[in-house]
């Protein structure tokens, strides 16, 4: 009986995650459609001043754990409150508890993002990503395609982006773990 209850609660969490992903995609679709309608009413030309560049860079070197993250992004401000873009990312993680138990993983991926600024400096963002992950864990080789879907919020002050995110998909090889995490990056326009 207890196993059935545990299975039911795990399925309930899975359904909740799918529902949250569906709602976020619906919200993103609505915002994109609204911004396209607004853009169609005005003469539309590509405006280089609406380009935004940003991303993250991380480096942590230690005796038991090392991390390297390079994640540039390029986006376009469709309206004063909405921007969208894409990026590439590479991450390397190495963990070891002793000379026999170590793990090393490489993640190479692409991402899309939608960013809403309801008012300054607050920002909300969704970011679906797809990674090719390869590496080794405990002497065994691993290679996987890893989907992630980040949802979060934070602030942008003078180009510095400080965000809290959560990976809604929670693939077993997600580079983000099963918890809320923070990210500090940069964003600047031309």
| pLDDT < 50 stretches | 1-12
Tell me the CATH topology: Porin
Helical content class: 10-25%
The general outline is elongated
Largest sheet: 8 strands, antiparallel, barrel
Mean pLDDT level: 82
Determine the N-to-C terminus distance. Answer: 61 Å
- Write the element-wise H/E pattern from the N-terminal end onward: HEEEEEEEE
User: How many helical stretches?
Assistant: 1
As a percent range, the share of strand residues is over 45%
Order of strands side by side in the largest beta sheet?
1-2-3-4-5-6-7-8
Structural class: alpha+beta
CATH first level: Mainly Beta
Gross CATH architecture: Beta Barrel
List keywords for this structure.
190 residues, alpha+beta, Porin, eight-stranded antiparallel beta barrel, 1 helix, 21% helix, 58% strand, elongated, disordered N terminus
Characterization of the model:
The chain is an alpha+beta fold. It has a single domain (46-189), classed as Beta Barrel (Porin). It is 21% helix and 58% strand. It contains 1 helix and 8 strands. It has one helix at 2-41; strands at 51-61, 65-79, 82-96, 102-119, 122-137, 140-157, 160-167, 181-189. It has an 8-stranded antiparallel β-barrel. Strand 5 and strand 6 form a beta hairpin. The radius of gyration is 19 Å and the shape is elongated. Residues 1-12 have low confidence and may be disordered.
Write a compact overview of the structure shown.
The protein has one helix and eight strands; from the N terminus they run αββββββββ. It is of the alpha+beta class and 190 residues long.
